[in-house]
Design goal:
This is Ketoacyl-ACP synthase III. InterPro entries: ACP_syn_III_C, ACP_syn_III_N, Thiolase-like. The structure is a single chain. By secondary structure, the chain is an alpha/beta fold. The protein has 8 helices and 13 strands. Helix 3 links the parallel strand 4 and strand 5. The longest helix has 23 residues. It is globular. The chain starts with a strand and ends with a strand.
Length: 352
């Protein structure tokens, strides 16, 4: 027995923020000094490196749990199930519900509990909880659903990734242009045929790498130093990802006993276009091959990096045929993979 995804849904916020919208930002160095390059040059280089042209921000009245609810409704409808039959709601996020313009995160009650309430699920045996696992949170939620279902503790799980990163970014940090908002959800249940999860890998590297992503003060020294924003050591993350993600993916594929040539798509966390491309090239190099064309669908150009939401959102867009030049067919084998704060890495192979 394994597990399979029987329904998916995503919520892409309506507000589009283009790179042009950052032209008036006053970007500073980590030391608080003005950057020597003009903002127009910074923005253009940013696009060349990340591939991001625009990103989506949530409407003011919506919180991360609202986005999660919207995506979950779509997944439940897609799966054609009664929500009362869900045994676990597992919601991955990083910062909880953050109201626009506020500095506090609200995680009481848990976001998963809030989604259960919004879905009006009465069954008390439907257990709802959150996980914090950085950007790989949704994949880790799927691995937990796998454990619950295989152990007999559950028959059906709702796994969600939702985030509003736009509310925890420092406007004086050029890395703020990376982040976005969104949500993706999946309904998962047992599979008794050849479809579903084939193998997985998951790991936490914390000895030297724990603080590559962290909460830090604004680069603008005149602002309140007690207000914290998402920060990262970009170069260290890039090098870490290139050294470790391809190896994890290789191990995962080898466990599945699927030849590398049979992999049809790689659904990887939309962190940075150049980094993702480098990871895929390094991954195929481990097998003495080069990546086939159209192996890695990308949504980062228009949606930005919405952390835990990028992988389930990308899958939902792909499985429903909404990505140009990409399609999936029954029997195709795909890889899901992610890397993020922790530093955490995970992956799983999956047959449609």
């Amino acid at each position: 027995m394994t597990i399979k995804i029987i329904g998916s849904g995503s919520y892409i916020p309506e507000i589009k923020i283009s790179n042009r919208d950052f032209q008036q930002h006053y970007f500073l160095s980590e030391e608080g000094e003005p950057l020597t390059q003009g903002t127009d040059v910074i923005v253009e280089k940013f696009k060349d490196i990340t591939g991001i042209e625009e990103r989506r921000y949530a409407n003011e009245e919506f919180l991360a749990s609202d986005l999660a609810y919207f995506a979950s409704e779509k997944a439940i409808e897609d799966a054609k199930i009664d929500p009362e039959t869900i045994d676990y709601i597992i919601l991955a996020h990083n910062f909880g519900d953050v109201k626009l313009g506020k500095i506090q995160s609200d995680i009481l009650p848990s976001l998963a509990t809030r989604v259960k309430h919004k879905l009006q699920i009465k069954n008390p045996k439907c257990v709802a909880y959150d996980i914090l696992f950085g950007c790989p949170g949704w994949i880790e939620g799927v691995l937990q659903a796998n454990a619950f279902i295989k152990s007999g503790m559950a028959k059906r799980c709702l796994v969600i990734g939702a985030e509003t990163l736009s509310r925890v970014i420092d406007p004086h940090d050029r890395d703020s242009m990376i982040y976005a908002d969104g949500a993706g959800a999946t309904i998962i249940e047992a599979s008794h045929d050849e479809t579903g999860m084939l193998s997985y890998e998951t790991a936490t590297f914390a000895y030297n790498e724990a603080n590559y992503l962290f909460f830090g003060k604004s680069y603008n020294k005149t602002l309140n130093p007690d207000v914290r924003y998402i920060k990262m050591h970009g170069r260290k993350i890039y090098e870490f990802a290139l050294s470790n993600v391809p190896q994890a993916m290789k191990s995962c594929v080898e466990k599945s006993n699927i030849p590398i040539g049979n992999i049809k798509k790689i659904i990887i966390h939309q962190a940075n276009e150049k980094m993702d491309e480098a990871i895929i090239h390094r991954f195929y190099k481990l097998f003495g091959q080069t990546p086939p064309p159209q192996i890695m669908p990308m949504t980062i150009h228009k949606y930005g990096n919405s952390s835990v939401a990028t992988v389930p959102t990308l899958f939902d867009q792909l499985i429903k045929g909404n990505l140009e030049n990409h399609q999936l067919n029954k029997g195709d084998v795909i890889i899901f993979a992610s890397v993020g704060a922790g530093m955490n890495i995970n992956a799983f192979t999956y047959r449609l």
